[in-house]
Write the structure tokens for this entry.
Amino acid sequence: MSLLCRDRVVIVTGAGGGLGREHALALAAAGARVVVNDLGTSNHGKGADESAAQAVVSQIIASGGQAFANADDVSDSAAMNALVAQTLDTFGSLHAVVNNAGFVRDRMFVSNSDDEWEAVMKVHLSGHMALSRAAANWWRAQAKAGSPIDARIINTSSGAGLRGSVGQSAYSAAKAGILALTLVQAAELGRYGVSVNAIAPAARTRMTEAVFASMMERPETGFDRMDPANISPMVVYLVSQDSRSVSGRVFELEGGLIALADGWRRGASVDQDKRWDAGDVGAAVAKLIAEQKPAEAVYGT
């Protein structure tokens, strides 16, 4: 891999395993200095273990790279402010954050407890917000002081956020929220030199193996389409200076596939330029549904 991210300083959350680990290793191989954040919780957000993050740091350093570990909770705003400060103290700058940390509490919608719902929202939505805001405040201050900024936020959504997934109402809602957050961040932060994009990866992780076991099985031969390392080249590109003109985009990634999500846009419409009679609405809706291209199916249906 070329040194596409030479001397770029990047914080990667949830980088102790799965996709985050592959992102951290790929970024380091591309010349970045990497902050490996991972609380070390279980797939359901239980417990804590700093060893996973430290193992990735040790691997990066053994390969000649620069990295340090951090085990703070991404949903804790004070901790994320401190993480940005620690990064600046250690590496002297910050160029990108890759928001990847998360876990699942899968339930059918009617069985989802308040605690389960809030835990998933907290790690995904609040986790994406807290670190991004801490970094963005520093970038904005630097830009207002006249320093040139060429920074990145890479958010992690999911096909569940784009289409929904049976048994994953909280996760799907959180991942859909991340898509909307990405659009707003891109619109607001571009003036400060910050590009913001999201990825919706399909790959083998402890979360997907639990839900889509057969789909995630390793093949005996040939291309391993679900290898999480397949996703990281896009992350390396988005962190690099080469991607500065790309912002507000969502990329679906699977194996060797790169697809640009079409976004939310107005579809079939009718406007009679006067208030509708409720009795006439049904026929208009039926006509619109017939004209509109069908939506992609919810996962699990």
Summary: DSSP finds nine helices and eight strands in the chain. The CA atoms of residues 230 and 257 lie 9 Å apart. The longest helix spans residues 114-144.
